[in-house]
Specification:
With 682 residues, the chain is mostly beta strands. 3% of the residues lie in helices and 42% in strands. The protein contains 4 helices and 42 strands. The strands form 9 sheets. It has a 9-stranded mixed β-sheet with strand order 5-27-26-25-24-20-21-22-23, with no helix packed on it.
Length: 682
């Protein structure tokens, strides 16, 4: 977990318990029909039924455009400090011989250190956010990023920045993540504590920003703050949500995009952070959140138990959806003491009737044996020019971000990675599972990439649209300072090998010292949604030996230079595109007029999905007598300006009105709600 306290005991010195109010699924539905801006409260309503916990956002609204927010600065800048430690996951794994080590750079190279010339240099390569990360005067940064159609967004502890993906020039920022929640109130505005994730939802052309928060100043992390952009522009406005998850300490949140929801994994500890209670899965109602409506979450009741290893949710890449109705997939870290496996879970979230949601173990494909990386110490990975007390944490007790999913039609692939010890150094263990939703789930390939005596860790894996795989990672040793590198394989390379060699994205010129051995908790490798072939990677480095002076780097590359890239075997078969449909949203959510009346201005946004391209006819209902609304244009295809004219005779009050949109063939009808407030002020 992340940020601001120098004393871990101070961070956890107050336990609190919050009662849960049991209520029926019908009450959940009533909550979901509330207006688009719900009142702020200490916690969201929650309940339990049939083994499921469910609840609603305790507040949601629409932010101002981020480009209009003032730069954020701390009035009282904290002293430089280490971000609070992630509590350790209990170590149970029994070391076994690693039979899948790749101990050379290329499957075709005849000498250990030969590097295949196939892997091209970076296409773009530029600096990202530097220390102190705007709002957190701490280390490490927990660097990750996402790529859209025209923009790249990077996020760290505790800041974000938007870049033009063609030029690498900054479009906005860096600014504080917490600034996104300016005016929101509660934990998300004042208690944001990092562990940030930025995702690009390519199905809806939206950006998703998350970080966790403290509901009380001296209590544990209990809340998750989620913001979904209202358009494809990452510098615009966002639908903001605050979710209160419970009274435990919820650590290491990682979100993913799935067609029916935003899914999240958490490592859960007791409120003081001293006891691991197991992983916990959450699902958030994506359809409501991309429309700016009050949203709910559902989760198995509580964490799964201290003997269960952490897991990650599968994050969808590529244009082809999972099979119709396929449950979201989670994959677990193979840390079991006997018969280690990639435990595969299925999560079916039913937001209409939460009690019908299910979270089950679907398969247990075996993992190859390995040796745990430094299970008893954080001072593990060596760096040049510093003493062993400043060696770095290899984080060998969990899967690393992301777990990337792709549907090729005739098979599904999920790729992931974690860090193990191989021949006395850290190596990246990567894997590809197949058919995770329909089964039978199988380990199609896996390997430990350890081609020489360099330590490699902090990996992130992804697969492009042709089945080529790349891994980005940090590299260091007693002879070099931490570097950012990547290795890759073509779909046609021999199985279990990164056959295209290794390239350097950026070689740091400094080592980190005196920061409690932390080197981030994750990095991020993602795929460009435009060509489905360009990999974008971000990680951290140091420019000079220092305690608190990290830098970040962003770069892009392709695995195959040929056009087209090699096709995997067997050839993918396209699946049908989703049914054409659309959603409606209204901004702002509320407009206030004085006693003289006048005109209230709103914008109605139409967001198509699938192949929907029809115009939408708009109508309005629920206005008081003396008020009328007009749309320009009507019908509309993307957006329409709504003008509500209000006479002076209209009584003081708050009026909720509904806009209905109808269009398409067969006809689709959707609604969105907003408020009109009339007061007696002159």
């Amino acid at each position: 977990m992340k940020k601001y306290s120098n004393s871990r005991s101070a961070f956890f010195n107050c336990r609190f318990l919050l009662g849960f109010v049991l209520f029926s699924a019908g009450f959940v539905l009533a909550l979901m029909s509330l207006t688009a801006r719900s009142p702020l409260s200490a916690q969201s309503p929650t309940g339990e039924a049939n083994g499921n916990k469910f609840g609603s956002s305790y507040r949601n609204d629409v932010s101002p455009p981020l480009r209009e927010l003032p730069p954020w600065s701390e009035v009282d800048r904290k002293e430089e400090h280490e971000a609070n430690e992630n509590p350790k996951i209990p170590h149970r794994h029994k070391d076994e011989a690693d039979t899948v080590v790749q101990n050379r750079h290329s499957a075709s190279s005849s000498t250990l250190n030969a590097v295949a010339p196939n892997l091209a240099a970076a296409l773009s390569n530029f600096d990202g956010i530097p220390f102190p990360g705007v709002g957190c005067n701490c280390a490490p940064p927990d660097t990750n990023g996402a790529i859209g159609k025209t923009q790249y967004v990077q996020i760290v502890n505790e800041g974000y920045q938007v870049f033009d993906k063609t030029t690498g020039n900054s479009v906005l920022g860096p600014n504080s993540i917490s600034s996104i929640w300016t005016g929101f109130g509660g934990a998300c505005e004042t208690g944001g504590n990092g562990d940030p994730v930025i995702l690009y939802d390519h199905l809806a052309d939206r950006w998703v920003v998350t970080q966790f928060a403290k509901a009380t100043s001296n209590g544990p992390i209990t809340d998750e703050c989620v913001a979904v952009s209202t358009t494809a522009d990452a510098t615009g406005s966002y639908y903001r949500y605050g979710f209160h998850l419970g009274s435990n300490f919820y650590d290491y949140p990682h979100l993913s995009v799935w067609p029916d929801g935003y899914y999240m994994s958490m490592n859960v500890f007791n409120s003081s952070g001293t006891s691991y209670l197991g992983p916990q899965a959450f699902a958030f109602d994506r359809s409501k959140m991309i429309a700016g409506l009050p949203a709910s979450f559902v989760s198995p009741v509580g964490p799964l138990g201290g003997s269960v290893d952490p897991f990650l949710p599968a994050d969808l890449d590529g244009p082809t959806l999972p099979p119709g109705g396929a449950p979201a997939t989670f994959v677990g870290f193979p840390g079991q003491s006997t018969n280690p496996n990639y435990t595969t879970y299925h999560f079916h979230a039913d937001f209409a009737t939460p009690a019908n949601s299910t979270f089950t173990t679907f398969a247990n494909p075996p993992a190859a044996g390995y040796t745990s990386l430094c299970p008893t110490t954080r001072a593990c990975v060596p760096q040049a020019g510093v003493t062993s007390s400043s060696y770095l944490d290899g984080i060998g007790d969990r899967l690393m971000f992301r777990l990337a999913y792709r549907n090729f039609g005739d098979h599904e692939s999920v790729v992931g990675n974690y860090t193990v010890s191989a021949n006395g150094v850290a190596g990246v263990r990567w894997f590809e599972l197949r058919n995770v939703t329909a089964g039978p789930v199988a380990v199609y390939q896996e390997s430990t990439y350890q081609p020489d005596s360099i330590w490699r860790w902090m990996g992130s894996a992804a697969m492009d649209g042709q089945g080529n795989i790349a891994i980005g990672f940090s590299a260091s040793s007693t002879g070099i300072k931490p570097q950012i590198r990547y290795a890759a394989r073509l779909a046609t390379d021999p199985l279990n090998t990164l056959g295209q060699g290794e390239a350097h994205l950026y070689d740091g010129t400094g080592s980190q010292s005196g920061t409690g051995n932390r080197w981030g908790d994750y990095s991020a490798l993602v795929i460009d949604p435009v060509d489905d072939a360009t990999f974008w990677y971000t990680n951290e480095y140091y420019a000079s030996n220092a305690s608190f002076n990290w830098r970040t780097r962003i770069g892009s590359f392709k695995v195959a230079s040929a056009s087209p890239t090699p096709t995997p075997t067997p050839t993918p078969t396209p699946t049908p595109t989703p049914a054409p449909d659309f959603t409606l949203a209204i901004t702002p959510s509320s407009v206030t007029l004085n006693r003289g009346g006048g005109t209230a201005s709103y914008t109605v946004t139409i967001t198509p999905s699938g192949t929907f391209s029809s115009s939408v006819t708009l109508s309005i209902s629920g206005l008081p007598s003396g008020a009328s609304g007009t749309f320009t244009p009507n019908p509309a295809t993307q957006s329409s300006a709504l003008k509500v004219t209000v006479a002076s005779s209209v009584s003081k009050g708050t009026y909720t009105f509904t806009v209905t949109g109808t269009g398409g063939s067969p006809t689709k009808t959707h609604t969105a709600a907003a408020k009109l407030v009339k007061n007696q002020k002159p």
